[in-house]
Amino acid sequence: MGERFFHKLALVESDDIGEGTRIWAFTHVMKGAKIGKYCNIGEHCYIESGVIIGDYCTVKNGICLWDGIVLEDYVFLGPCAVFTNDKYPRSRNKDWELRKTLIKRNATVGAGAIILCGIEIGTYSLVGAGAVVTKSVPDFAVVVGNPARVVGYSCTCGKVILRMSEKGKFKNAKVICPKCSSEFLYKNGSFLPISSISTEHRK
């Protein structure tokens, strides 16, 4: 069983933190936050009550996570990525609406990216550094820019294997990752791993 590590300069008020998780200096984890096992939480982070972080996640330095934000397992958040939970904030507003954000399993959010609230970041997707994400990101998609747009799709290993400029020649065709040989199908605007393609998708 892996021992947890909390730096002596971290303020950890939550009791719901999994084995093997490491929390570094000047990070504040509030009571009511949940962090899974074998996570790495960098320096100068703030994790509010109501945040849920799955297992094996990496939260790099300078990130604030607010109530309503959920990270599934194996999520990577690059340094200084920005999250919100209120679409129309005011300093004092009793009627504000909390909008939840879900970062799905194995997703990567690049350094300095801004993730607006009320959306989902798809499994194995890649959000480029500095992107401003205003709407949900499909599974495996690579998004960049302001506002963020889909420029391609990535393999589970992280390599970009389909660029939107090439999508015509891959329509309804198998796409093979040159790095790890995983196989995908681009069909009807979706990028699907071969192993999960149902009979319906094959029609």
What is the beta-strand fraction? 25-35%
Q: How are the strands ordered across the major sheet?
A: 1-3-6-9-12-15-18-20-21-22
Task: Report the span from N to C terminus.
Answer: 47 Å
Shape: globular
CATH class: Mainly Beta
Q: Structural class of the secondary structure composition?
A: mainly beta
Whole-number radius of gyration?
A: 18 Å
Mean pLDDT: 92
What does this structure look like?
This protein has a single domain (5-162), classed as Hexapeptide repeat proteins (UDP N-Acetylglucosamine Acyltransferase, domain 1), CATH 2.160.10. Helix content is 4%, strand content 33%. The protein has two helices and 25 strands. It has a ten-stranded mixed beta sheet, with no helix packed on it. It has a five-stranded parallel beta sheet with strand order 5-8-11-14-17, with no helix packed on it. Mean pLDDT is 92; it is low at 197-203.
Short description:
The chain has 203 residues and is mostly beta strands. It has helices at 167-170, 199-202; strands at residues 5-6, 11-12, 22-23, 28-29, 34-35, 40-41, 46-47, 52-53, 58-59, 64-65, 69-71, 76-77, 82-83, 101-103, 108-109, 114-115, 120-121, 126-127, 132-133, 141-144, 149-154, 160-163, 174-176, 183-187, 190-193.
